[in-house]
Amino acid sequence: MKRILVPTDFSVASRSSLKFAIELASRAQAEVFVLHMVVLPLLQETTFGIQPIPADEQELQKATKAANKVFEEIRKQFPSKVEVHFNTMHDDIVSGMQVFIKEMGIDQIVMSMHGSGDLEEFFIGSTAEKIARVSSVPVLSIPGDVALESIRNIVFPSNLAPDQDDLIKDLKDLQRMLHAKLHVLLINTPVHFCNERQAQERLEQFAKNYSLCDFTINFRSHQFESSGIIEFVNEIHGDMVAMATHGRSGLAHLLKGSIAEKVLHKIDYPIWTWKLK
């Protein structure tokens, strides 16, 4: 983890995520890139059918200048030895972030679960979920003001599938950076059923295969995976959930949904999502 992206709408919540990112970057010896997306209302010309009108250059410059002024206030609010870069873009929020991630070599996103103002939908609802679903790098969603030191127990729900080397490597790096205990969780459902002996064997083999350290293995039965995960987090007083997401889109997403997104809707803990390749 060397380059952390923090998208911001300048809300209190997004500033809290920046504070968390700076703490994380300090521990990881990383850089922080703050990104504000300048989104102007889309104008349309209808003389020859509906045609988009390019954004007015003066309005873009005005919005960018206003953003830079807020950046200066934020820089004073969060003095840090960590190198923090402030950036603006004019683009669609999701596609613009993907371009920025690629161009700047970002390897982690830290963002707020909540926002306010004109870009509130950026942080809550479908857009935040889409970022977690399509992002090529892990996304850490923060619910409000969370101190890095408060994260001591990470819950990792998994189907224990093989060939998760990259995911587990990043997860172990996160665990070491947070000095946290890892709780591997297998949820037994009517759709994906296994008995307790089989589950114990699979969990033990999974931990051995990936040389896990400072961990527990756990097996719970529940009708729905997302509800089982949330109940377990509350049971052990977990501080963070780390989950893989398949990054489904289109019809596949409508039919299958996303367990990670369901959990994101219902918990008030930091959640780290990693899109399976």
TrEMBL record:
SUPFAM superfamilies membership: Adenine nucleotide alpha hydrolases-like
InterPro entries on file: Rossmann-like_a/b/a_fold, Universal_stress_UspA, UspA
Limits of the UspA domain: 1-142, 226-272
Any one Pfam family match given in the protein's UniProt record, by short name: Usp
Family stated for the protein in its record: Belongs to the universal stress protein A family.
Descriptive protein name: Universal stress protein
Organism: Ohtaekwangia kribbensis
